[in-house]
Predict the 3D structure of the following.
Amino acid sequence: MLLSLENLSIGYAGTPPIVTGINLQVKPGEMIALIGRNGSGKSTLIRSVAGIIPTLSGNCCLEGTRVRSIEMRTRARMISFVASQVSQLPPITVRELVSLGRIPYTGWRGRLGKGDREMVERAIRAVRMEGLIDRTLDHLSDGERQRAMIARAFVQDTPLMVLDEPTAFLDLPNRYELVQLLTEFRQAGKAILYSTHDLETAMTSSDRLWVIHQGSMEEGVPEDLGIKGVYDRLFASTGISFDVEQRKFRPAGITRGTIHLTGENAVLLAWTRNALERLGYQRSETTDTILEVNDSGTEPAWILTRKDGSARFKNIETLARFLIQEN
Amino acid sequence: MAVILLLLLVVMVMLDIRFGSVRITFSDMLVHLTARDPLSDQQLIILQKFRLPRVATALLAGAALPVCGLQMQTLFRNPLAGPYVLGISSGASFGAALVVLGAGAAGLIATWSIALAAWAGAGLVMLLLLYVSFRIRNVMTILILGIMFSSGLAAVISIMQYFSQASALKSFIIWSMGSLGNVTGNQLRIMALAVLPLLLFSLLYIKVLNGLMLGEEYAVSMGISIRRTRVVILAVTSILAGTITAFCGPIGFIGIAVPHITRFLIRKSDHRILLPLTMVTGMVILVMSDLISQLPGSDRVLPINAVTSIIGIPVVVWLVVLNRKTTAL
């Protein structure tokens, strides 16, 4: 077993433990996403596993040896770490940054041999930053910077990579690209443990999920956790529920009424569904209120029909205004 | 850049030996070496007892203080850190003040006793810092405590100054302006013995300093022991800065500014190049400052502290205004 957590408690000395009784394992080549609310202990767990902070009790073992008792240089060849961002960046180039990943392998001068340099080049190609190799970090976007940090971790050449919310400060395309990179690393045989708030991406790209909820841990493949209702419990106290169809969390909010939506054009229907959701209408096929999205003319039209008559709207804005005023 | 700096260093050293209140030209020296027309005894004494030790002192201090500054800046990830930020110079000043202001009244102040007392003062602050760094995890807390030591000692010194005699006060103030010229043969040997090995030793930590650039968490994850690194760097900078201050008084400015100037010159933050070149740049600037402080052509001497600041500040202002990114660590 690559990483095994046995009856582990994590937290900070002098304060009550944040999560207790963790019994989990990571096999080589597995990709695991760690889910939990803010302050639930995701970062603490990631840092405990990486050996950056001590654990409170229990065992956190890497290939059978306790992480904190492995000699630091040896440990740095087994686990690499990436944080969500670097607060203060030195004005070094991408190449210099990625080269730092070879620190556990080089001598006191930090001189890179031929193999080290090839590894650095390969990592920079893997994160698709060949064109930016001589840029300094302050001239990179957040996404590029994070990719460079991940290349640095890759160069450390460890069987396990742990990442603390690597996508936290990234926009959607960068988030997907980054998770894509991680899946590529997994295919290359690395085990990956990363924390995230992006449940949707986590569910579609990781082998297993670890979910921290109220000081304890649940784990499994994403679907089993869903069937057990773990995602619903995660935000139960906040009025947010999990929509299985769309694999999204949505606020419970107010319900204004029910509407039966009909129409042909898929795009118009999708956007209309979004508007109804936003306005607090639930869809139902048994109700008398029918909203027809008419795509037959040159301009689309929304026709709202009730027992007492019907009204026609030329866009969603006027429809929405009508629905709000009516309530 | 390295070659230019080294050439500049050689030129500065030669000029600094050449100029002073007594005229000794290069050709006089050359002729002396060929033994055809030796220099007068007076000229020889000036060269051997005054100018060469002064240049050697400038070289040692010029290499050591900026290295301390660079290590502090990287350790605390703070571009404003310098060799004295944790109170080493205050400790040294406190020691010197005890001797100069306390015993000064009796009129028997040997340079030796000042140096020893200043050294002891700096050593005391170092022990305090090491104790703190063993007990406290957060590096920012160490920085704040260091600044507190420093301010506290400065307060004590100002009370001592307030109650001391005018003549003692003047000698203390002159000491605190810094001087490269008071270090004589034996003291120079001791200073070199303390400084040179530590400068070489600090080269062993360039990789670690590089790792620290990304912050402590990343450093740990790359196999760097933060506690050991911190203790070693604190000890090295304390001994270096404490020794220089003990013999030369607190020499301000170059410790903070030279690392920035060097970063700007080589446009790199890689300590493998930055650290050795910081030594060279520091030597060039301090020897040049010494040369200017001799006011070639006159027989007056300016305090070295004033010169380093007056020539250094415009350089730093220019660098910062011109290029904010490179100087911001």
Notes: Chain B touches chain A through 25 residues (CB under 8 Å).
